[in-house]
Design a protein that fits this description.
By secondary structure, this protein is mostly helical. The chain is 71% helix and 0% strand. Helix 2 crosses helix 4 (74-96). The longest helix is centred in the first third of the chain and has 24 residues, at 21-44.
């Protein structure tokens, strides 16, 4: 039997209610797991690492659920947690390995070229280039000004262009 659709408001009310919180969180995991997986996968490229990060995102969300005030959509709140978990993972990995970015399974050469950019530039590049996210949404998500995001995107594009020209 299909589950009834849940509105954002209903979901937020259920998450705020200690008696319904666990059930509501199960709904959150069911509704958003796939979106969070693909958000992370576009930055990490490895299935196992992505699965681990998705688990970490939902663990952190559950641990912080009492602090969720509903000022943002549940999806935005999860996206932000996923973003910071992924950035922390990439920073840690960068210290462990010389080249964090590996080619995607599809072999997209842009993934290789953006590898020389900073984690922030990589993030902005992916959100803008692949997800076509507007700067105002990126600013709300990252807490960074639109001007700074535009500058990061410009620098990332410059690095990609230089790497592509060098590889020709």
């Amino acid at each position: 039997m299909p589950q009834p659709l849940v509105t954002e408001e209903e979901l937020q009310r259920a998450l705020a209610d200690p008696e319904r919180r666990r059930s509501a969180f199960t709904t959150v995991v069911r509704l958003y797991s796939q979106q969070i997986y693909w958000q992370i996968r576009r930055m990490v490229y490895n299935h196992d690492d992505t699965d681990d990060l998705v688990q970490n995102v939902f663990i952190k969300a559950w641990e912080a659920i009492e602090g969720f005030r509903g000022e943002a959509k549940v999806s935005t709140w999860l996206y932000r947690i996923a973003l910071y978990e992924t950035l922390n993972f990439l920073k840690k990995r960068r210290h462990e390995e010389e080249n964090v970015i590996a080619p995607s399974e599809e072999g997209d050469s842009l993934y290789l070229q953006i590898g020389r950019a900073s984690c922030r530039q990589q993030l902005v590049f992916r959100l803008r280039y692949y997800d076509e996210m507007p700067y105002d949404q990126m600013a709300a998500l990252t807490g960074t000004s639109e001007g700074a995001l535009k500058a990061s995107y410009h620098h990332a594009m410059k690095k990609v262009t230089e790497e592509l020209q060098r590889s020709e």
